[in-house]
Automatic annotation (TrEMBL):
PANTHER family: DNA-BINDING DUAL TRANSCRIPTIONAL REGULATOR OMPR, REGULATOR OF RPOS. It comes from Nitrospirillum viridazoti CBAmc. Residues 133-233 form the OmpR/PhoB-type domain. The modification 4-aspartylphosphate is found at D55. This is Regulatory protein VirG. The lineage of its organism: Bacteria, Pseudomonadati, Pseudomonadota, Alphaproteobacteria, Rhodospirillales.
């Protein structure tokens, strides 16, 4: 399966590019390496890329600017790499659309695990036709797991990153139930939260901006003090 997956590694450190290229190739992936945003854009235009491993600190346009551009163009999923201690930058990366992040230095085996998890979340069925059995309706929205698609009452599709989709699905499948950050991270990513891991909070904030009438006073995804979050909308079938 992995031999059909084409990864793009973007890092200005030649040693890291070469190391990741060799390691990911040994795990069966096709790998292209770029040293900056200019090369990244060239390869995205010329090749079919399934996922980007993107360093935060790059010459010229940094990883945050590039991630924002990728997401604006509905580009492939992004796993961002960032130096340890840059929590604010990692959180900002998630806010603008990175699907996961990994602090440097990192274990290459963990990177492979993160890549596999993001690719699983981002795989979607062919779009088209009627909603499949098992679709959910709530607050005027329809979430179709068969197509991994969220649409408004008007029929307009609401773009979600892979991480946002998995988080929304986890909430919709467990309405009126308090879920802690640890619960949600385990459900969506299969791992426990670290003491400073705020990625769930970041993605909740992004979801609220997309589905709440007033994100500052949410009625669908509510915060439970010292508890986590609860999906308060009534969930039905289309």
């Amino acid at each position: 399966m992995s031999e059909n997956i084409h990864l793009l590694v973007v890092d200005d450190d030649r040693e890291i590019r070469d190391l990741l290229t060799r390691y990911l190739t040994r795990h069966g992936y096709r790998v292209t390496a770029a040293r900056d945003g200019q090369e990244m854009r060239k390869f995205l235009a010329d090749r079919n890329i399934d996922l980007i491993v993107l360093d935060l600190m790059l010459p010229g346009e940094d990883g945050l600017a590039l991630c924002r551009a990728i997401r604006a163009e509905s580009g492939p999923p992004v796993v961002m790499l960032s130096a340890m201690g840059e929590d604010a930058d990692r959180i900002l990366g998630l806010e603008i659309g990175a699907d996961d992040y990994l602090p440097k230095p990192f274990n290459p085996r963990e990177l492979v695990a993160r890549i596999k998890a993001v690719l699983r979340r981002s795989q979607s069925a062919n779009v088209g036709g009627s909603p499949a059995a098992g679709a959910f309706s709530f607050a005027g929205y329809m979430l179709d797991p068969a197509q991994r698609r969220l649409s408004a009452a008007s029929g307009e599709e609401i773009a979600l990153t892979a991480g946002e989709y998995e988080l929304l699905l986890a909430l919709v499948q467990r309405p009126r139930r308090v879920l802690s950050r640890d619960d949600l991270l385990e459900i969506t990513r299969g791992r426990a939260a670290g003491p400073f891991d705020r990625s769930i909070d970041v993605q909740i904030s992004r979801l609220r901006r997309k589905i709440e009438t007033d994100p500052a006073d949410p009625a669908i995804i509510k915060t439970v003090r010292s508890g986590g979050y609860i999906f308060s909308a009534e969930v039905g079938t289309p």
